Amino acid sequence: MKQEEGWEPKLLGFLCRWCSYAGADLAGISRKKYPANIKIIKVPCSGRVDPLFIIKALRLGFDGVLVSGCYPGDCHYQTGNYRAQRRIAITKKFLEYIGVEPQRIQASWVSASEGGKFTEVVSEVTKELKEVGPNQSFTDGR
Amino acid sequence: MLKNKKISKRAIGTLLNEWSQEFTIFVPLRERGVAVLSKWDGKDTSFTGWYRNTAQPAKANFFPPVEKMFSFQKDKEGYHIEPLSSDEHKQLIFGIRPCDARALTILDMTFKDLYEDPYYLPKRNNMVLIGLGCTNPYDSCFCTSLGINPGESTDVDLMLTDIGDQFLIEEITEVGKELIAKASQVEEATEADEAEAREVKKASYNKVTRKIDTEGIKEKLLSCFEDQDFWEKVSAKCISCGICTFLCPTCYCFDINDELVRKQGTRFRSWDSCAFPVYTKMPMENPRLEKWRRVRQKVCHKFEFYPMDFDIIACVGCGRCIRQCPVNWDITQTLNSLPTRV
Amino acid sequence: MEDREREQKLHHEAKTLLEQGQVDYIIGYETGSLKFTTTPLITKDEDDTDRLVVNPFIVNNLSVYLPEVRGKAGIVAKRCDSRSIVSLIQDNKIAREDIVIMGIPCPGLIDLKKVELLLGKDRDELDNITREGDKVMITVDGRERDFPTTEVLFDNCLGCEFPAPQEYDVLLGEPSLSITDKVASRARIKELEAVSQGKRWNFWREEFSRCIRCYACRNVCPACFCQRCFVEETEPLWLMPMPRWQDNLMFQLARNIHVAGRCTDCGECERVCPMNIPLRSLTRKMYELVDELFQYQAGMDKSAPPLLTAYEPTEAEDFIR
Amino acid sequence: MTVTDISQRERFLANGNVYLPHIVKIEKVVDETCDTRTFHFNFKDEKLRKEFTFQSGQFALCSIFGAGEAPFAISSSPTRRGHLECTVRQVGKLTNALHRLGIGAEIGFRGPYGNGFPMGFLQGKNLAFVAGGIGLSPLRSLIWNVLDNRDNYEKIDIIYGARSPADLCFKYDLDTWSKDKGINMVTTVDKGDESWTGRVGFVPQVLEQAASSPSNAVAIVCGPPIMMRLTFPVLEKLGFTPEQMITTLEKRMKCGIGKCGRCNIGNIYVCRDGPVFTYAQIKSFVSSEY
Hints:
Strand order of the largest sheet of chain D: 10-9-8-7-11-12-15
Strand content of chain D: 25-35%
Number of strands of chain D: 15
Shape of chain B: globular
CATH topology of the largest domain in chain D: Rossmann fold
Helix content of chain B: 25-40%
Number of helices of chain B: 12
Oligomer: heterotetramer
Helix content of chain D: 10-25%
Structural class of chain B: alpha+beta
Number of domains of chain D: 2
């Protein structure tokens, strides 16, 4: 796939307000550097993320989607992240079968105290997306 | 006095090629097992062997499932609307069935009513229709009940009848006459050809065995309009999908929607269906929320309301709604079982 | 047991249920208005029960009507339908005690599209179709031809493990051995799996450029029971309500994910598609994925929680960072 | 079905295409209630600004570019052509988008469509306006039209109700009308509050008490469907004939010109054959889905 010079992947993050969002906040406060490729939507729980959100993000031209929530057992609503886990697993595998690169659908557990982990996750995901290249799934020219 | 012409089936390719100088040609083709009207590839005339009718009616060529109405942009001075340049290229449909051709005549009435529709009518005026009589109607066909002969049509420019190795050609309009005058492969039809064509038409007419009684149908529907029990019973198995309306050659309902992507906007119109509850949904209420009301609307629109407005039944008996229905909901059964008021 | 005998037993059962007031409705099949078709019969009338039929063309998954029927219903169900019923019970859309299931041991249904393709003739041009064991006899132009059942059964029937319904109150006949062909059942999926990601995407893109968005696939699906589907939402607008391939594909992807763990591979979506889009190559794949990831099969256990509301803390999460 | 003469309107088509909107600019936004606003707007095109005319009761399709298009009654009077007004309640995607727009924003406008109130028929009559909630908006156009030609009409009654004092639209107009000695104005609310000194009660009940005389009178009714269904019988009881009752109906619409299909009541298309109907017409409809 032809890549434009200086192309940067666009990543959409759905971050749980109880943990990962706070983790991202912490990363900012502690002046940790992470790629500016991510746009963040705060969700009440990773369990709020309907796979439809992920598909819509790809439809809108985002190169990847990151869903980030609390560690297993730490969900503010007890089981939201477990549910998210099943949904994302299904979505990732299913979209892979349809022909979407699995790297475009990412998930992580990041707690409120893990500013460092958040920067790492975003960096790694961004790196992977750079390797995969631009998402042209829904454009007419793929 | 012999006026009709004929052409050998083997010469159809040549004929279409001659016409393709002037027209974009559409013929029935099979795409993944579905018969559709497709742009002719310049070669394939196999449809003369298998073609019965297309899954989608020809209306899609004039009133596509989705079409752009205009585009709009915003700049410093505000919004600008750009009408789309209409495609002036002439088109020709080869092999339209008499039912589908009549359906276009019926659609014209709506699209000409009050304000002329600036998308449908130009395409319609730019299209030449070459009719092809049915020799093998489906068991779902009931066109003869609606005054249509599957072998004949006056809603086309030329009408063809399959007489074995050849097609008999009747010139219906001046446009059709000119087309034939320019065609190289056309011969004069003989008396025997004419006789053969008459037989073919008669035979295909008799092959249509499904019937509805249209006598006084408007009045019958009027009298049972408020019979909720009847409509509930009739509609019970309907699953409210859009197949019967989308594939109906006389259904024309549409939706209008905007899409705005990075300050570039487009307004689209697309097919809509009275089978969907959202079709009539208003913020506070929905006049046709219940399924029986929607089924009643579909039946009555065709057999009661359209005749009230335009003096013609908006059904041509093509049978697609029966053939393609997921649950075999059969409009002819409904119409034949209308309760008569005692 | 012969279809005829089964029908007689069914007539009796259905009539008794209505007479004794055990159910308000009977949902079954009656002879359709076209050759080799059946059509759903939903009735309160005892006399109508004589019209109920059982034959190799009872294609509809009748469980789709259950959530909308008011009152108790007696329903005729094949295995796949019975699993949809179980799935609806799991989702609390219907209550087990409101339903009487008249189970049909189903040795597979005849796919008329396959028959048409085999013979190069349309359904209405055929004279007769009968089935005997592992053979199907089709008469065309006065000539009878034999085909192995596996050539004319629906793909999903070929993948059906077991003929008896999962859940029933009355079983009409003895389950005979299923004739299956697992390889043929998922042949098209295998073909897709073998090509590159890009080719797969292009395949679906092509297929969905034909979609007219009639929503028959959704409306015929018992797993698609949402009161208001996301495609009808306007705030936010998830996708344009018009048939463009992007929106069509998005609709079908999201629909498939939404019915994951509810889809019983009944194959109705593919059967009803007027544009012949191979939808089962999506639904069956999802079915397999769910099984592979969570060892879960839809509609097997009415007391189990629905797939997407449950979890096992030990589940593999190797893809999560 | 009424055959409408549209020859007067064809000159208002943009590029001769009935589906293309003209661009209009919002000049003023008036808050009517917590969820209802009146938008004052005018054409960008100088010529249209001068020439555009319509009849009271007609409607237009307003485009919020990117959100879509919806029909709204024109709530200003054709006798006051400084600008146009539409009053819009926030109920869905499009109206939400419109409510986000302010002065200077541009929207699309095509129309006028439908049939207006039968001005000739109304002349020389006693007029009773009965409105509920935002249903006053099409009537307001007619009321100002009538007031601007006051000599042509006899007695004028206005009975207007809303759910609560805060839900009354056009309070500035209500003030003016209630001070007008030539108008018998009754305002009512379903439920009052501490400061409310006017009537409390549903419109049909208040109408019954107010008891306008049916002789040489016409009642013009518009409001939510439930109010309308209850008002017609009251008017009949008061002695109004169905021919003496006029109303304007609302349906979901997309095209505005009788083609897209959804606004039908039997064979009647509200956009093409209405939206103004007499109750006699409504009673003659095939369907009661009005």
